[in-house]
Amino acid sequence: MITIGLDLGYGDTKVISENEQRYIFPSRWAKAESRNWGIGGNIPVISVDDGDSFVFGKDAIGSGVRQPQEDSRLSDPNSYPLLAAALWVTNLGKENTEVTLASGTQLGSFEKEVEKARNLLEGKTIKIKSSAGEEQKFTISKLVMRPQGVGAAIYLLNRGLIRKQYGNAVIIDIGFRTTDVLTINMENMEPIVELSFTIQAGVGDVVSGISKVIAKETGFIVPADVARDAISSKVVYSQKEVGGPIVSQPLLDALAQKVIDDMRENMREDLDRITALIPVGGGSILVGQKLDELAPGHMVKVPVEDMQFTNVLGYRIAASQ
Ligand code: ADP
Ligand code: MG
Question: Where is the Actin homologue MreB-like C-terminal domain (predicted)?
Fold first, then answer.
């Protein structure tokens, strides 16, 4: 029996398999020709349960691209190909492999979503084939689910980054489309639902902001992946250097400010009870430090390489405990 951790984000799908091997790809897929022309052949074209062939991740481009839009991360029909892709990349299904799938979903709709995901996936055998003729099969014998943020908390406890003490820990997960805030009472390690909420802001706002600037400069709409890369450094598009830190800085500042403002409004005097402030998620790599003013001196630093993986690492730990 193997345990695979899966975090199907709005932006990226994060996967942890045996030996904490990590995989990540953009959360999107598109139908594809199943014919193998014998050129290149490097792009994985797969099908699941003998359905239509599709490509996924950065290879999925063009007008037919699908991505799961709903909060229901595992039960959305548009998530199923991504789940199959996540299993496929682990390369562990050469025999019919039994899997414990460890994943998560938003706190607000947790019970409902867990039930839907269980009905859909528990006991199910998923058959994945590539156009190159390879086949992998996985049977999901068990589904372990935790709310988003709780996954991160389990990771933090496991690594000794937070421990039992007075006060509240606030995990701020800055994702692509949303920022999810989870408050935990560190005396009993229970989530405080009234102080947990979602802010409608994320790295995606910075990406669309950069796209607008580039469109003004070049007259072209650049692909989202290009705009995303243009946050950290300049990129060449249409013979022009565009984007980069000078363009992205004010947009990143605006994102951080929006998170700070919404935190203040939602938490009010409870801000004073924060004894651990923990920015996680890919967005925290970009703006995490700016959140210090919410609880000065109480920032807990997660290793940069784990930032985007905190939830999925925690889901997998939960399944192995
Ligand atoms: P979600 O869970 O919503 O899919 P993630 O937390 O995975 O979002 O990532 C949010 C965004 O953070 C990514 O879309 C990416 O643009 C950005 N990001 C991730 N890793 C890095 C990094 N190493 N440097 C800069 N930005 C990053
Ligand atoms: Mg996320």
Answer: 171-293
Nearest CA to ligand 1 atom 17: 282
Q: How confident is the model at residue 36 (pLDDT cuts 50, 70, 90)?
A: low
CATH superfamily of the domain spanning 2-147: ATPase, nucleotide binding domain (3.30.420.40)
CATH of 164-301, one of 3.40.190.170, 3.40.640.10, 3.30.420.40, 3.30.230.10: 3.30.420.40
What gap in Å lies between CA 85 and CA 93, rounded to an integer? 12
Distance CA 281, CA 149 (A): 10
Is 281's C-beta closer than 6 angstroms to any atom of ligand 1? yes
Identical fold, 2-147 and 164-301: yes
Instruction: Tokens for 13, please give them.
Output: 């799908």
Kindly state if the Cβ of 175 falls inside 6 Å of ligand 1.
yes
Ligand 1: which of 6, 24, 176 to mutate, most ligand atoms within 8 Å of CB?
A: 176
Question: Is residue 280 within a helix (H) or strand (E), and if so which, with residue range?
Answer: strand 274-280
Q: Report pLDDT digits (tens) over 230-279.
A: 999 999 988 889 999 999 999 999 999 999 999 999 999 999 999 999 99
Domains in the chain: boundaries: 2-147, 164-301
**Residue 296 is encoded by which pair of tokens?**
């000065």
Q: Identify the nearest ligand to the CA of 106 by its number.
A: 2
Asked if residue 84 has pLDDT above 80, the reply is yes
Name the residue with tokens 């199959």.
84
